[in-house]
């Protein structure tokens, strides 16, 4: 590279400190640690704004860096102007010294994450020292070289961003469909209203009844039954492993899903897969389509506890650790129940239930009967199958989308690594 210079990050970028009252922002342009996705995967919609306080102002092209538990790598290149919470640092490039995307590539690198971890303080909520971050050493090429090397990265990032948005939209659709059918009972209420008021509504699906069994709190559709989850599943805890059996080389071990694979936003993170070379039993082998749930949490906000994933096809026959629990359907239970239970774990009601039964202080645990004794409404098999048909198609598309996105991310990261390592001309 031409005109390379060794310097501090603070020589080419600075942290924004300007703030505005929270009422100047909306859900569409406010960013907090809760709606930033881990592993540099962007952002998701936020549920609501804080009632009071101030937000740090950011502009399009700034790099937002979640400064709580930096190992989650929640980093985002701003696509619009807005405001961010106090625990989100806003890095801004100094004009004509560093390209904003080049700055983002440095902050998104594994080396920067490792450095940020090394300068973090705090036990429960570790935060990186802001001034120490600005001392991070970099080797910088000329601004012209930066822009040339980042041109292809920009197009790749746009592709990744679009794929992430599609996935989020599909997931939200499935979650809202489940909520409408099985929690809010919208179609049942609609049919009940139509009958009571002599209305004709041909849009109401025939799979739903037109009345309810009981008054609140067990206000469930006519013909449905209330059961405990334990009536349908057995719980199997994963392997209690030793670190000496973990392998760096994937060819030396069997893939093993662990607590790190559960992002705090409920997403599955394949980058955290471990490889295990020790002994295990057949019950510790997963099949694609299995439902796995996190039974442990190291976040005090209970952000991971009770999160569930559906094992993707490419991890068929992989293992799982003791921090996770397999929710195994009993032999007589139809496969469609697995997706019903998966989306049940996405509901606010279930999350609140799990949070209330958590045990422990620094490390939180979920007792087995938190799941097995949880009471749920069971719809007719025909309705379960209909939802399963829809959700399975969505899940298949998401898996294909994730596979392709993973390949694209690997290519991007390799290009960035070469650029930051001075391997590109």
Key terms for this structure?
alpha+beta; globular
Structural overview:
With 425 residues, the protein is an alpha+beta fold. Helix content is 32%, strand content 19%. It is built from 9 helices and 24 strands. The protein has helices at residues 100-108, 110-118, 130-134, 143-183, 186-196, 336-344, 348-357, 369-372, 381-420, and strands at 5-8, 13-15, 19-21, 30-31, 54-58, 63-66, 75-77, 82-84, 88-93, 120-121, 127-128, 137-140, 225-228, 233-237, 246-247, 254-257, 274-276, 291-294, 296-297, 308-310, 319-320, 324-329, 364-365, 375-378. Strands 2-9-6-7 form a 4-stranded antiparallel sheet, with helices on one face. Helix 4 packs antiparallel against helix 9. The longest helix has 41 residues, at 143-183. The protein is globular and about 75 Å long. The protein starts with a strand and ends in a 5-residue tail after the last helix.
């Amino acid at each position: 590279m031409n005109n390379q210079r060794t310097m501090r990050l603070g020589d080419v970028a600075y942290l924004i400190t300007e703030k505005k009252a929270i009422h100047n922002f909306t859900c569409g342009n406010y960013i907090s640690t809760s709606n930033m996705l881990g592993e540099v995967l962007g952002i998701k919609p936020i549920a609501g704004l804080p009632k009071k306080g101030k937000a740090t102002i950011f502009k399009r092209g700034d790099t937002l860096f979640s400064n709580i538990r930096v190992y989650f790598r929640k980093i985002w290149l701003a696509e619009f102007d807005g405001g961010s919470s106090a625990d989100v640092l806003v890095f801004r490039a100094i004009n004509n010294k560093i390209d904003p995307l080049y700055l983002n590539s440095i902050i998104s690198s594994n080396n920067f994450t490792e450095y940020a971890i090394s300068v973090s303080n705090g036990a429960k909520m570790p935060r990186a020292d802001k001034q120490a971050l600005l001392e991070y050493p970099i080797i910088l090429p000329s601004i012209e070289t930066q822009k040339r090397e980042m041109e292809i990265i920009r197009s790749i990032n746009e592709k990744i961003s679009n794929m992430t948005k599609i996935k989020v939209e599909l997931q939200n659709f499935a979650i809202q469909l489940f909520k409408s059918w099985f929690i809010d009972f919208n179609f049942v209420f609609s049919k009940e209203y139509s009958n009571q008021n002599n209305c004709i509504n041909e849009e109401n699906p025939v799979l739903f009844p037109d009345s309810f069994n009981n008054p609140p709190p067990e206000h469930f559709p006519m013909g449905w039954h209330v059961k405990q989850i334990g009536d349908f599943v057995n719980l199997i805890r994963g392997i209690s492993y030793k670190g000496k059996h973990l392998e760096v080389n994937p060819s030396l071990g069997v893939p093993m899903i662990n607590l790190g694979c559960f992002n705090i936003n409920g997403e599955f993170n394949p980058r955290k897969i471990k490889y295990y070379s020790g002994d295990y039993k057949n019950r510790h082998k997963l099949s694609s389509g299995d439902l796995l749930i996190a039974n442990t949490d190291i976040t005090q906000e209970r952000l991971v506890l009770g999160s569930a994933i559906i094992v993707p096809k490419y991890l068929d026959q992989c293992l799982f650790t003791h921090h996770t629990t397999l929710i195994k359907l009993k032999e007589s239970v139809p496969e469609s129940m697995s997706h019903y239970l998966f989306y049940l774990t996405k509901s606010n009601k279930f999350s609140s239930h799990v949070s209330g039964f958590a045990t422990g202080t620094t490390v939180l645990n979920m007792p087995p009967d938190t799941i097995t004794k949880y009471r749920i409404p069971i719809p007719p098999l025909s309705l379960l199958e209909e939802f399963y048909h829809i959700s399975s198609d969505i899940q298949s598309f998401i898996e294909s989308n994730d596979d392709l996105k993973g390949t694209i991310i690997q290519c991007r990261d390799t290009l960035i690594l070469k650029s930051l390592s001075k391997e590109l001309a």
